[in-house]
């Protein structure tokens, strides 16, 4: 087990036990690795990197109960990131392939001081109900905008606008949390 795996797994386990500072540190460290991971794969679209980081951190947060603590945390987180990247490419009709073996590269991301990071529960809770549900439905559950809009009782266009505003608000909170 690498030092990174050991550290992240210990922080995640503490976070699952209710240690909020450990959980924030885990997500912040994971965010550093995600930024490096996505930046290497998104050289033609650097503006999408932060969106993918946020989507992946949200998915990790919401799906954290599905992680088997007897298994590698970074392998699980890498799989979440990989699927988010593939989904991103599919939405944009980009055809790329990713080797399954790039998990070790994910672990090798340059480490920086993560600072406080973003507490995802609070960030999501700060969104209006409709926006929070749309983020969850589209970015985490994988529903189309039309499906998510229908569930929310709004048009696809209104769902797209609301989702855009929600992601923009989350990104803004992340920028302020990093200061």
TrEMBL record:
From the UniProt record, give one GO term of the biological process aspect: DNA-templated transcription initiation
Q: List the SUPFAM superfamilies hit by this protein, alphabetically.
A: Sigma2 domain of RNA polymerase sigma factors (SSF88946), Sigma3 and sigma4 domains of RNA polymerase sigma factors (SSF88659)
Keyword tags: DNA-binding, Sigma factor, Transcription, Transcription regulation
GO-annotated molecular function: DNA binding; sigma factor activity
Question: Which InterPro entries does this one have?
Answer: RNA_pol_sigma-70-like (IPR039425), RNA_pol_sigma-70_dom (IPR014284), RNA_pol_sigma70_r2 (IPR007627), RNA_pol_sigma70_r4_t2 (IPR013249), RNA_pol_sigma_r2 (IPR013325), RNA_pol_sigma_r3/r4-like (IPR013324), WH-like_DNA-bd_sf (IPR036388)
Q: Which Pfam families match?
A: Sigma70_r2, Sigma70_r4_2
The answer to whether keyword Ribonucleoprotein applies is no
Q: Which residues belong to any copy of the RNA polymerase sigma-70 region domain?
A: 33-93
List, for all copies, the residue spans of the domain called RNA polymerase sigma factor 70 region 4 type: 119-170
Similarity comment: family membership:
Belongs to the sigma-70 factor family. ECF subfamily.
Name listed for the protein in its UniProt record:
RNA polymerase subunit sigma-70
What organism is listed for this UniProt entry? Caulobacter henricii
